[in-house]
């Protein structure tokens, strides 16, 4: 009977917001601390509740641990773990979330980061901290330093895993900033979105470890009364301690629009003491919020509506001149089906300022013949002010064969595009001299001058010695003549 009530409660949480999607009731979600923001710009807030109140992060701490490991370590490094996997200041128990490694094992740092993020291994966190930071304290210092760099001013860490400590805290807003930063690191996303990862057996541990991601928006768990998998989820991190409650930091993306949700403090007394519902509520509620925000807080605009520039050109090295058009290769941006999906205010701003959108070409292929028709040459970034609003692939419009004979230099105006007002936006061929370039040139010229002076001095000395010897021989001949 109790299980049936749990199922009904979960289904109620799942279906009521979906039925009233256009009129979503955030008050139906009892989570004490939460924030819903644009994942591409966390200053755009869709909903917040006690977002700046201090909370305990539990295992969502491991987002920062993974980032510090990625930025300060080499995933391919191998290391032998020691007693730190049993816990240093706090000994881990069977109630701790553990990867399952043993002292004396040799693993890669990559194995440990997967164990940290997928199964929330406290043992992996300690091993990472000791290896990357030299000690847990050294690693925690790096965590707090990174938090300050990101602007997490309401956050302080004391350990790499989130085991409870009164002085280990954060805020829902800070964790949104952290997730937004983490999403910019490709390797982090690759790890965090992984459903399953296998750690090979070794001489200490004779069986392999199969790690299943604890994020139920990515992985269905047999026995759950509802399927919580969400098709647009990118990645997330769960957390759970008696003091912190059920926590969740998660991101989803749909048609280019990205949303981050942070939720802290779900406890059983908020769900009539039902532990099943309490555990699943964060996943069910996050899915309902994502659906609502994607449907109501974002708008779209197409490239055609904005009149984005499509054609660009570049000079080509060693090209058969007959293949070029006015000495250039033309390239087309693939924007026919390009749709920009972002917050309502941003879409309105983009539409109102379409004439100010500029294009920045980034060639990822050398513009050197031979080039085939349809070959991807790079990307074009469309920018409004300093913000990149969208990107598109850039392909060659026609083939260019290689010229016979000497390789020629590229046209000095290698890439030139124009904005709406006709001003040049891109000139890949012309070099903009920086202070370091100027200093380097100065050193080179001084070195050449010094070499020239040395050569001149040596030649002058040789000439003087020759003249002295010539005069001495002449004097000797005169003396011999008169004698």
Give a description of the structure.
The protein has 483 residues and is an alpha+beta fold. It has two domains: 2-296, DD-peptidase/beta-lactamase superfamily (Beta-lactamase, 3-Layer(aba) Sandwich); 301-427, Sandwich (Peptidoglycan synthesis regulatory factor (PBP3), Domain 2). It has eleven helices and 18 strands. The strands form six sheets. It has a five-stranded antiparallel sheet, sandwiched between helices. The protein is extended and about 115 Å long. The model is unreliable at 1-22 and 406-433 (pLDDT under 50).
Give the topology.
Layout (H helix, E strand, L loop, with lengths): L1 H18 L13 E6 L2 E9 L12 H11 L5 E3 L25 E3 H10 L3 H12 L2 H15 L21 H12 L2 H7 L3 E4 L9 E4 L20 E9 L3 E10 L2 E10 L8 H22 L1 E5 H4 L4 E4 L14 E5 L5 E5 H9 L5 E6 L12 E9 L2 E10 L19 E3 L5 E4 L7 H48 L1
Antiparallel strand pairs: 1-2, 1-9, 3-4, 5-6, 7-8, 8-9, 10-13, 11-12, 12-16, 14-15, 15-16, 17-18
Helix pairs in contact: 1-8, 2-3, 2-4, 3-4, 4-5
């Amino acid at each position: 009977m109790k299980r049936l009530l749990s199922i009904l409660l979960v289904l109620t949480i799942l279906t009521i917001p979906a039925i009233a999607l256009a009129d979503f009731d955030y008050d139906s979600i009892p989570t004490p601390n939460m924030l819903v923001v644009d994942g591409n710009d966390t200053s755009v807030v869709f909903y917040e509740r006690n977002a700046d109140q201090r909370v305990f992060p539990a295992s969502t701490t491991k987002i920062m641990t993974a980032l510090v490991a990625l930025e300060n370590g080499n995933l391919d490094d191998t290391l032998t773990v020691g007693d730190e996997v049993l816990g240093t200041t706090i000994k881990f128990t069977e109630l701790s979330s553990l990867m399952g490694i043993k002292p004396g094992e040799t693993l890669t740092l990559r194995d440990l980061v997967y164990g940290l993020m997928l199964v929330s291994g406290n043992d992996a966190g300690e091993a990472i901290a000791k290896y990357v930071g030299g000690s847990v304290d050294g690693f925690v210092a790096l965590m707090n330093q990174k938090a300050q760099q990101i602007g997490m001013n309401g956050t302080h860490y004391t350990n790499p895993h989130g085991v409870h400590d009164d002085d280990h805290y954060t805020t829902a807003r800070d964790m949104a900033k952290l997730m937004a930063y983490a999403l910019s690191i490709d390797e982090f996303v690759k790890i965090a979105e992984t459903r399953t990862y296998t750690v090979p057996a070794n001489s200490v541990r004779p069986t392999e470890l199969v790690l299943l991601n604890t994020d139920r928006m990515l992985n269905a768990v047999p026995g759950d009364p509802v399927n919580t998998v969400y098709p647009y989820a990118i990645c997330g991190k769960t957390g759970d301690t008696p003091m912190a409650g059920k926590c969740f930091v998660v991101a989803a993306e749909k048609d280019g629009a990205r949303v981050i949700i942070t939720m802290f403090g779900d406890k059983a007394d908020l769900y009539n003491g039902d532990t099943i519902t309490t555990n699943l509520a964060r996943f069910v509620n996050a899915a309902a919020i994502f659906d609502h925000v994607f449907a109501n807080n974002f708008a779209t605009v197409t490239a055609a509506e904005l009149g984005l520039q499509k054609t660009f050109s570049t000079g080509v090295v060693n090209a058969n001149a007959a293949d070029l058009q006015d000495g250039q290769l033309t390239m087309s941006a693939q924007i026919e089906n390009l749709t920009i999906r972002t917050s309502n205010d941003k879409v309105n701003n983009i539409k109102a300022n379409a004439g100010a959108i500029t294009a920045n070409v980034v060639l990822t292929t050398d513009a050197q013949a031979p080039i085939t028709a349809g070959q991807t040459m790079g990307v074009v970034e469309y920018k409004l002010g300093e913000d990149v609003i969208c990107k598109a692939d850039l392909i060659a419009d026609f083939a260019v064969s290689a010229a016979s004979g000497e390789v020629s230099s590229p046209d000095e105006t290698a890439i030139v595009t124009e904005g709406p007002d006709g001003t040049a936006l891109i000139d890949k061929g012309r070099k903009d001299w920086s202070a370091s370039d100027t200093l380097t040139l100065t050193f080179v010229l001084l070195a050449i001058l010094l070499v020239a002076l040395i050569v001149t001095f040596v030649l002058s000395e040789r000439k003087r010695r020759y003249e002295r010897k010539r005069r001495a021989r002449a004097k000797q001949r005169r003396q011999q003549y008169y004698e």
